[in-house]
Amino acid sequence: GKGEFRHYMLKEIYEQPAVVGDTLNALVHPSTGAIALPDLPFDLATVSKVTIVACGTAYYAGLTAKYWIEQVARVPVECDVASEFRYRQAPMQDGGVTVLVSQSGETADTLEALRYAKRCGQKILSVINVQESTIARESDAVLYTKAGPEIGVASTKAFTTQLAVLACFSLALARARGAITAEREAELALSLREAPSRMVEILKHDETIARTAPQIAEARDVLYLGRGLAYPLALEGALKLKEISYIHAEGYAAGEMKHGPIALIDESVPIIVLAPSDSLFDKTASNVQEVAARGGRVYAISDSAGLARLDDAAEWKVEMPAIDPFVVPLLYALPVQLLAYHVAVFKGTDVDQPRNLAKSVTVE
Ligand code: F6R
User: Fold this and answer.
1) Could you tell me the distance, in angstroms and rounded to a whole number, from the CA of residue 101 to the centre of ligand 1?
2) How would DSSP label each residue in 95-160?
3) Is the CB of 244 under 6 A from ligand 1?
4) What is the pLDDT of residues 242-300, one digit of tens each?
């Protein structure tokens, strides 16, 4: 049941520290704290390319993994939505691993993408939540997310546990290829292990975020901006908002604004900016100045140093802990989910059962 929570979605948002912790515990060595994946039926050291295929929120987890893997393991990564990938007859090179990401393990397009990649001789690794599922059965290896049953149609804890698994996979790949120093690997593993307790701190902003919801709920359009690891999260934020609140939302790479979408900006458009203090912060901050100068109303999600820098431009602020940029996706997912949730609740929509959507999409 939902227990003390008004909706399954809210309960599942609050379960994230626990289920991300469980997911990480299964992939981390209990005494050394190093990432320790189960044995895989292929050699990570010789992987020539990683192709990640998924749908919806799971695709955004995959897109995040593209940034992680390229950054730490230096392996080329391609990431596509399954409904495109399965039909475009992509040439696939020897030595490639195809990674399918799916909560249900039953999504029709993702399953057909798996079968295509298999016919092309790829090794198949999947990241799945439901153990007894078709995609899990047809894979060479499975890394399970330990999210438990996800009832809310809008994916929350499945997403952050997918991120946890994919972050561990990135580090394991980096180590196998000798692409990362032992010191940096230990640092990143530690930041990951600390993510659940950081999540607990972040959930304390629930009420602050709820108070901002009525103003966002008035908007007809909302833009989400981010760069680097915050970019897939901008896409996920927009998806979450549109699917449960029915407000039109778009996620954009912050640097793409001036190539078109900036034309949409006026006083009626809230712009949710995901701007951790990382190496791209200055670039994102200047995009924020550009939208603020055109009357856009800025909702900044950043750490205290970032918020101080965005102070003049931002109308709404949510303060995140200062953390290693590598774990930004896991943590910044929470305010993004809470904002969509509270806007939807304020609008009175059926948060757990949004119109036109099904939990598992087994037809194409
Ligand atoms: C969004 C959402 C969907 C799913 C997508 C893939 O909140 O839930 O976008 O992420 O339908 O589903 P799975 O992960 O079961 O393959």
Assistant:
1) 9
2) TEEEEEEESSS--HHHHHHHHHHHHTT-EEEEEES-SS-HHHHHSSEEEE-------SSS-SHHHH
3) no
4) 999 999 999 999 999 999 988 889 999 999 999 999 999 999 999 999 999 999 999 99
Could you give the CA distance from residue 114 to residue 135 in angstroms, rounded to a whole number? 8
Q: Where are the beta strands (DSSP E) in 304-361?
A: 314-320
**Distance from the alpha carbon of residue 153 to the mean position of ligand 1, in angstroms:** 8
Catalytic residues: 359
360 CA distance to ligand 1 centroid (A)? 7
Amino acid identity at 90: A
- CB-ligand 1 contact for 55 (6 Å cutoff): yes
The whole-angstrom separation of Cα 267 and Cα 107 is: 40
C-alpha atoms less than 13 angstroms from C-alpha of 337 in its C-beta half-sphere: 29
Q: How far apart are CA 66 and CA 83, in angstroms?
A: 19
Q: Is the ipTM of this complex over 0.95?
A: yes
Test site for ligand 1: of 145, 361, 362, most ligand atoms within 8 A of the Cβ: 361
Ligand 1 within 6 A of CB of 110: yes
Residue 28 phi/psi, 5° resolution? Answer: -120, 140
- Ligand 1 proximity of 56 Cβ (cutoff 6 Å): yes
Dist CA 205 CA 198 (whole Å): 12
Instruction: Please give the C-alpha separations between residue 156 and each of 13, 203, 280, 344, 359, in angstroms, as whole numbers.
Output: 6, 13, 26, 15, 12
The answer to whether the CB of 262 falls within 8 A of the CB of 286 is no
Sheet of 248-253, strands arranged across = 248-253, 221-226, 270-274, 297-303, 314-320
Report residue 21 as tokens. 């912790």
Closest-lying ligand 1 atom to the alpha carbon of residue 158: 14
Out of 12, 52, 57, give the residue to mutate to test ligand 1, the one with the largest number of ligand atoms within 8 Å of its CB.
57
- pTM for the model: 0.98
What is the residue whose two structure tokens read 């609050």? 14
Separation CA 166–CA 202 (nearest Å): 22
